[in-house]
Design a protein that fits this description.
This protein has 166 residues and is α+β, with helices and mostly antiparallel strands. The protein is built from three helices and six strands, in the order H-H-H-E-E-E-E-E-E. It has helices at 33-69, 72-83, 85-91; strands spanning 96-97, 102-108, 111-121, 126-136, 139-149, 155-157. Strands 1, 2, 3, 4, 5 and 6 form a six-stranded antiparallel β-sheet that branches.
Length: 166
């Protein structure tokens, strides 16, 4: 049967057989599921990369601090401070090192130099150990080995009298 033999539709009935086409509005109510997954994946990758960078920087800082803390000038300064009676009296016992030492240590074979600041604290007060030393022929010679007690202007000299610079 072709369309010419069909009777006309009753009044009020649509004359086409396809449903009407609707056009979506400019802003969908809910974004498609694929977009949310993509955002989550991108956020995960960015956070993962940021975590890797933080871990890498932390590992480098940990390595540098461990090298500095294991150096002879650092260890000698802590030992000199802990064995000095005036330091024990000012800071209180036990004397412990702080976490954030600063400065530099440069070594090249049997020579080198060190210029470091070491935070220390005892049971009563805190202070900073200052160390300046030079290494020649495998031996360290200390130019400065002093403790600056927090809140005081004078430093405590920790060098033996025969090693002090004049």
């Amino acid at each position: 049967m072709d369309d010419s033999t069909l009777p006309p539709p009753p009044p009020g009935m649509a004359t086409y057989s396809q449903p009407p086409v609707t056009v979506p509005g400019p802003y969908p109510v809910q974004p498609p599921i694929g977009n949310r997954k993509t955002v989550k994946i991108i956020a995960g990758v960015v956070l993962g990369l940021a975590l890797l960078v933080i871990l890498f920087v932390g590992a480098i800082l940990g390595f540098v601090f461990s090298l500095m803390k294991s150096s002879e000038p650092y260890q000698h300064a802590l030992q000199a401070a802990a064995s000095d009676a005036s330091v024990r009296q000012k800071l209180g016992v036990p004397i412990k090192e702080g976490w954030w030492a600063s400065g530099s240590i440069n070594l090249s074979g049997a020579s080198g130099n060190a210029d470091i600041s070491i935070p220390v604290h005892g049971s009563e007060r805190s202070g900073t150990l200052y160390v300046v030393a030079k290494k020649s022929a495998g031996l360290w010679k200390y130019e400065i080995l002093e403790l600056q007690v927090e809140g005081e202007s004078e430093r405590i000299n920790l060098l033996p009298p025969d090693q002090q610079w004049h």
